[in-house]
Design goal:
The complex is a heterodimer of chains A (427) and B (290). Chain A is of the alpha/beta class and 427 residues long. Chain A has two domains: 214 residues, Rossmann fold (3-Layer(aba) Sandwich); 149 residues, Rossmann fold (3-Layer(aba) Sandwich), CATH 3.40.50. Helices cover 40% and strands 19% of the residues of chain A. Chain A is globular and about 65 Å long. Chain A starts with a helix and ends in a 17-residue tail after the last strand. With 290 residues, chain B is mainly alpha-helical. Chain B has a single domain, classed as ABC transporter involved in vitamin B12 uptake, BtuC, CATH 1.10.3470. Helix content of chain B is 76%, strand content 2%. Chain B is built from twelve helices and two strands; from the N terminus they run αααααββααααααα. Chain B has a two-stranded antiparallel sheet. In chain B, helix 1 packs antiparallel against helix 9 and helix 10 packs parallel to helix 12. The longest helix of chain B is centred in the N-terminal third of the chain and has 31 residues. Chain B starts with a helix and ends in a 12-residue tail after the last helix. The chains are: A alpha/beta (427), B mainly alpha (290). Chains A and B meet through helix 9 and helix 10 of A and helix 1, helix 5, helix 6 and helix 11 of B.
């Protein structure tokens, strides 16, 4: 017994000493990392591959594979040919993990260009880390308001190192309200806006949905912001039923919306229109609802009918979607086009950069004017500095064979994209 | 008015799930005096076992549940017999720390095997159908089944404890392990059986959890919290008290969420704190202050 007591502290002390030595060794080793990357240019990419938003990252590996193939011969920057190394990190759908992943890419991997995609939980921390450490950074797939104002952006100054392209709340509000007016309802809208950067931006009394809905004559049932993950929606369903809500909208991760939609079924709540961003954007999430997926609607940021093509591979939207399905056996989803266009911009920027110096890379990003598979990217033409906007439409899931097809029904905000049909009420 | 009734009805039904979660926790504390910190994680483990079985073998949720339960019983028996029994003794901290370790191990193994993506078991039409009482009140088949199963399991447990040899052995081993051994009963085996039973109950709870909503590998501690609160509200040692505790917690959350969707969980916690402050032994305690 007494032996134990003497032994324990000694072991602990040795452990601490060992730990200190290990830390010192790591710190000494760090400078060598940079020297090794002389003729390689490193691109870091952070995206949610797991967690509630995993569906967004589904096409990551396919896109990275395509880009690696296109850059197999290296990339010429300022007269020197560089090998391109793409380092991928999973944000696990969490802003803490995204932030850690970005700082690891910046500090340990010493990436020359940082990319991030999909929802504020990943794009905001990634951009913040890049801005803090002075690393050129491009992100996409987050409405521009949460990304810009969520990071306390100043519309006259903008940011120094970070650039972003996607649509904005004005587009989704316009497209949703236009689509909803295609069929006759009592115009009562029920909202599922959670307490996260997206939910807060959508519910904002000045820039969000409420003022536009009021102007267009819609009634609104909004119980307030709620924490995620959310498993119990009884209070929402009961309020929606009480106020005779016929249109449900929201911005929810697929699992949370799944909980809502199942409980709506359990409690016999049958709205005519359900338009949920994030949640119903993905074929896999839709498939899980079985028959109850038929008629759900959602905004569409990219689809095989978008009349654009890739600057990297020359593929049209349709060809890109087909190549993805051939390679993975999975149906196309919207992030596919934006993942591809993010790397299109990255490659274009590096090609145009005068050297691999961060300032030269940043200058190249700022002067981007590139037609991509997701639309033309030009950061000088955005509503605020550092932003480029892409076209947004809305669509509805319709049963087709064993699965569901996303049929475009509204292009009020992007007339260049063809629509196929009008919105139908949920049967 | 009827939307208030609906709120309470939905809360009561949620309480069924909490009671199922809590019953196993109450049993392992009652018999072994072990506070199983990994209890919620075992529920999530059972849920993921059921999901894996349903996927690999193409089973429906009921079949997956029936296959999961013996597995959970085996896990419980082995866990208690070969690991937790060794940690038992005068010091209650030791088994608690062991279960804390299990909590971390289970979460990380599940993350490794299934990634952080939330999953659910799809119950088809059964999961989304209901009995409609009026425009405001509808009772889903799935939550109703959950409640009925919870009541049936608790009734079964009550019978087991009061009427059977095994139940007597559980109570005896709980009261005085030394004397039980003198009577020729191996208390280690009795403990292991009790843990196996607790794991079966937590297994049922876990499978209902993923039938009702999406669950991710790190959801265990949150479930533990609800189970814990149900046990404390209901009173230690009382099975029907556990059911009442679960129902009170479920209703408190539902009423809180009716005022503001952000207040649901908070209202549950406040209700728990109020019980702790005014009735520290819970509402229906079987134990007395020492």
């Amino acid at each position: 017994m007494s032996k134990d007591i003497i032994k324990t502290p000694a072991t602990r002390r040795r452990l601490l000493q060992g730990g200190a030595a290990a830390t010192a060794a790591t710190m000494l080793a760090a400078p060598h990392v940079r020297a090794a990357s002389a003729n390689t240019i490193k691109i870091g990419f952070v995206s949610p591959a797991s967690g509630p938003l995993a569906a967004f990252g589904e096409s990551d590996q396919f896109t990275i594979g395509q880009v690696k193939k296109a850059l197999a011969g290296g990339l010429k920057i300022g007269g020197t040919t560089y090998a391109v190394d793409i380092i991928y990190k999973d944000s696990q759908s969490s802003s803490n993990h995204a932030s850690d992943a970005a700082s690891e890419l910046i500090l340990n991997e010493q990436v020359d260009l940082l990319l991030g995609a999909s929802t504020p939980a990943t794009t905001i921390p990634v951009a913040d880390q890049a801005e803090l450490n002075g690393v050129p950074c491009i992100t996409t797939d987050t409405p521009w308001q949460p990304w810009f104002f969520g990071r306390k952006g100043n519309p006259t100054k903008g940011f120094q190192w970070t650039y972003h392209f996607f649509w904005g709340l004005e587009d989704i509000i316009g497209s949703y309200t236009n689509m909803w007016q295609q069929i006759s309802t009592n115009k009562m809208v029920g909202a599922l806006w959670p307490n996260d950067p997206d939910g807060n931006a959508w519910a904002d009394a000045q820039h969000g949905f409420p003022p536009v809905l009021a102007k267009e004559g819609f009634g609104l049932t909004d119980l307030g912001r709620f924490p995620l993950p959310a498993s119990d929606f009884a209070s929402f369903i009961s309020a929606f039923k009480k106020n005779d809500v016929e249109i449900v909208t929201g911005v929810l991760p697929p699992p949370d919306f799944g909980n809502f939609w199942n409980q709506a079924g359990q409690q016999g709540f049958k709205p005519k229109i359900v338009t949920a961003a994030k949640a119903t954007e993905f074929p896999a999430a839709i498939q899980a609802f079985g028959e109850r997926a038929n008629g759900l609607s959602v905004e569409v940021w990219w689809s095989p009918v978008y009349p654009f093509s890739s600057s990297l591979t020359g593929q049209s939207s349709a060809a890109l979607a087909q190549a993805f399905t051939q390679a993975t056996g999975k149906q196309w989803s919207m992030p596919l086009g934006f993942r591809h266009s993010l790397f299109e911009v990255a490659v274009d920027v590096l090609k145009r950069a005068a050297s691999t110096d961060p300032n030269d890379i940043r200058a190249a990003i700022a002067s981007t004017n590139l037609p991509t598979v997701a639309g033309t990217i030009n950061f000088n033409k955005g509503p605020v500095p550092n932003i480029s906007k892409t076209p947004l439409t809305s669509g509805q899931w319709r049963k087709a064979g064993n699965g569901f097809d996303l049929v475009l029904v509204d292009n009020s905000q992007a007339p260049m994209v063809p629509v196929h049909d009008k919105l139908l009420p949920i049967a | 008015m009827s939307d208030w009734i609906n709120t309470i009805v939905q809360g009561v039904l949620t309480g069924g799930l909490y009671a199922l979660l809590a019953a196993g926790l109450s049993l392992s504390f009652g018999v072994m005096r072990i506070i199983n910190i990994a209890h919620g994680d075992f529920a999530v483990l059972a849920a993921f076992i059921a999901i894996a079985l349903a996927q690999w073998l193409g089973l429906n949720p009921a079949e997956a549940l029936l296959l999961t339960l013996p597995l959970m019983a085996a896990v419980g028996y082995v866990l208690q017999r070969y690991i937790l029994n060794r940690a038992l003794g005068a010091d209650v901290m030791r088994p608690l720390l062991v279960t804390f370790g299990f909590s971390i191990i289970i979460q990380n193994l599940l993350l490794e095997g299934f990634s952080a993506t939330p999953r659910s078991l799809y119950a088809g039409n059964f999961g989304t159908s209901s009995v409609t009482l009026n425009a405001q009140i509808a009772i889903g088949y799935l939550p109703l089944t959950m409640m009925i199963v919870a009541v049936a399991i608790l009734a079964g447990m009550q019978m087991l404890f009061s009427r059977t040899m095994l139940g007597r052995a559980f109570r005896a081993a709980s009261d005085d392990p030394e004397v039980v051994r003198l009577m020729g009963v191996d208390n280690r085996h009795v403990y292991a059986l009790a843990m196996a039973l607790a794991m079966v109950m937590v297994g049922v709870a876990g499978v209902f959890l993923v039938l009702q909503s999406n669950t991710s590998p790190t959801d265990g501690p949150q479930n533990l919290l609800y189970a814990f609160e149900s046990v404390i509200i209901g009173g230690l040692g009382s099975l029907w008290g556990t059911l009442a505790g679960g129902v009170i917690l479920g209703v408190a959350q539902a009423i809180g969420a009716k005022f503001d969707p952000g207040w649901g969980t908070l209202a549950g916690h406040l209700c728990f704190l109020a019980v702790l402050a005014f009735r520290p032994n819970g509402l229906f305690p079987k134990t007395k202050d020492r």
